[in-house]
Amino acid sequence: MTQTDIWRLSATDLTTLTRRGDLSATEAVRASIERMDEVNPDLNAVVEDLREQALERAEALDNARAGGKPTGPLHGVPVTIKVNVDQKGHATTNGVVALKDVIAPDDAPVVSNLLKAGAVVVGRTNTPEFSFRAETDNPLYGRTHNPWGRHISPGGSSGGAGAAVMAGIGALAHGNDIGGSLRFPAAANGAVTVKPGLGRVPAWNPSQKVERGLLAQSMSVQGLITRSAADLHLSMPSLITADARDPFHVPMPWRGPDPDAPVKVAFTKNTFGYALHPEVEKALDTARDALTDAGYVVQEIDPPDVFECGRIGYRTLMGEVLTLMQSDIEAAGSKTIQNIFAVYFQEFPPIVETEMVQMLAKRSHYAREWSLFLQDFPLVLSPFLPQPFFKPDRDTEGADGVHEVLGCAVYSYAMNFLGLPAACVPARLAQLPKGPQPINVQIAAQRWREDLAVDAAAAIEARVGQMCLPLWEKSE
User: Which one from 24, 112, 153, 157 is the annotated catalytic residue?
Assistant: First the structure.
């Protein structure tokens, strides 16, 4: 097997080889580093190169295996970590110049869990300032580009992660999501992800000086962006391992009980007055047909009010941001991010003071409505965005730009407010005037049933194929 072949391997295929000794961890990591050297200068997805320590760790893993020690489920898998999460000895910059020297004293739980599973970190990936854009650019590291071409934003805030994994830099990419920051890059790059539900993946940054706001704690989650649904089934059980530093983590297994067969799926094309692009509609139809052929019972029916829930949720989050983050944004943010936040506050008028407390209480009402609905329909297939993914810097173009980028993304941030899991998977490769572009759909699931969402994503992927393959053919 050549180095060219190795970087193409999925994490699932890679671990089959590394755990039985047909491929060394060192060979796997070296292939990923060589691929990074080839594509990252153009993409700027990885902004901190960790090759030296990665090769040292890979050699140690090889020696341990040769000495008879057991291998972890992710033995030798090259991964990337987003720069807004603590990795011991490295700066947790969050894309902000003022934080470039904030060195993490220890690993965050998500990093610890990946390392315990045998993964090898080859680099740290880019994020926008404060990790609060659906785009990835900042004054500290610059812009990340989409491997499909510069006509498409790479998404954000885990844009570096999405671009890296789809270009072949590592088999798994860590990211996080408070309003869509795993799913936006997955949709932009044609990757697969699942936004875990509230409490599923332990989270905490040892470098942080104060606790995050209540909504940041309850809406933000840690996860992975991958090239295939199977790699989520492989890797997420390691990610959800308990860590006492997150006192609200829920220690449940990845796989829940077998659901009633066949699984019922609520299918909706409702975009709440936003125009549904024909290519998005075709993607939805393909996903519906794939699930039907796989044995799911798909019924066209609207779930509880996503628009009201999503808008209220994001406006309440903006109230928390205004209260707790505004001074930091003004003190350390660029003029670009300050202007974007000013428009955010127009698009999502912040809910503050007494009304904020009322909306935090009403969150249970929305969650209860969805919980009851999901008893009958354990999965909900919907658009992720009503239009194909937007161009770079669209959110800098005033109210219209922010409205296209975030205003219409209610299916995204509603799931964060509800605390429900939601997978995002490509269902079509659209041939648009500016170039080819993947179109992703979303699959929301019952609480604690990320596994069901990933199963459905796998069924859609089986029909459509993996988007990395035509992408790699395009670049060769």
Answer: 157
* Known active-site residue 335: no
Domain ranges in the chain are: 3-475
Residue 24, amino acid: S
Q: How much is the pLDDT for 187?
A: 98
Respond yes or no: is residue 209 known to be catalytic: no
pLDDT digits (tens, 9 = 90+) for 407-426: 999 999 999 999 999 999 99
Say how far apart CA 248 and CA 145 lie, in whole Å.
36
- Identity of the amino acid at 360: L
Structure confidence by residue, pLDDT tens digits, 183-193: 999 999 999 99
**DSSP conformation class of 394:** G
- What is the torsional sign of CA 290, 383, 216, 186? positive
DSSP of 293-350, one letter per residue? HTT-EEEE---S-HHHHHHHHHHHHHHHHHHHTHHHHHHHS-HHHHHHHHHHHHHSPP
| DSSP percent split of the chain into helix, strand, coil, nearest 5 | 45, 15, 40
Strand partners, 300: 267
How far is it, in rounded angstroms, from Cα 399 to Cα 407?
A: 9
Distance (Å, whole) CA 88 – CA 92: 9
Contact 196, 232 (CB under 8 A): no
Q: Among this protein's residues, is 157 annotated catalytic?
A: yes
Active-site hit among 10, 82, 238, 382: 82
Look up tokens 């969150």; give the residue: 363
3-475: CATH topology is Amidase signature (AS) enzymes (3.90.1300)
